[in-house]
Amino acid sequence: MGSRVLLLLVALFAIVSSIALASDPSSLQDFCVAASNSPVLVNGIVCKDSKMVGAQDFFFSGLQKPGNTSNALGSRVTPVGVTQISGLNTLGISLARIDYAPWGINPPHTHPRASEILTVIEGSLEVGFVTSNPDNRLITKILQKGDVFVFPVGLIHYQKNVAHGNTIAIAALSSQNAGVITIANAVFGSKPDIPVDILAKAFQLDKTVVVNLQSKF
User: Fold this and answer.
1) pLDDT value at position 4?
2) Is 164 annotated as a binding residue?
3) What is the disulfide pattern of this chain (predicted)?
4) Model pTM?
């Protein structure tokens, strides 16, 4: 009986630990407004003196403004994280507005520290994510205005505007600093370059093709 209780406690501890590690640490106080000019380095940002905190530390204005989509991808992400709202520090949340020109894309990328829930505000989006090895299964759906879709933490995902006009989405993320790894930029635009022979073998491409791709990033 005692061993069963012990096994149960170990299992519960493992579950709780996995949940705790899947998102930002919980705050142990009302708030920890980021003191962005602090020289101290921590896993997050050092707290500002709470006596110096005001409404401006929890406020951001600007999501009503369309992002400039005049670029090669035809999209623009306007982030609202701890850099924009210092009061988000330790709260484990952030969001972004994403604007898409007709047929514009938010290219395949991952958020290493957050799951994402996306809502279409205007227009229509094709969205998708790829499951991990060995299946690498692509899960896709067409979203209309008001539809919501979730991208699990760490998985490669993308969006494409399939409307004839502009599309707008709001994405919420389960981290104050979700991070973004754009796959093409990371693979072909690393500094310094990943050796050509490695990429050629990994992607089964001619080396000249790899060199050409690296020159574009």
Assistant:
1) 53
2) no
3) 32-47
4) 0.82
In the structure encoding, which two tokens stand for residue 80, read together? 């609202």
The pLDDT tens digits of the residues spanning 58-79 come to 999 999 999 999 999 999 999 9
Q: In the 3-class helix/strand/coil scheme, how is the chain assigned residue by residue?
A: CHHHHHHHHHHHHHHHHHHHHCCCCCCCCCCCCECCCCCCCECECCECCHHHCCHHHHCCCCCCCCCCCCCCCCEEEEEECCCCCHHHCCCCCEEEEEEECCCCEEEEEECCCCCEEEEEEECEEEEEEECCCCCCCEEEEEEECCCEEEECCCCCEEEEECCCCCEEEEEEECCCCCCCEEHHHHHHCCCCCCCHHHHHHHHCCCHHHHHHHHHHC
Tens digit of pLDDT for each residue in 154-172? 999 999 999 999 999 999 9
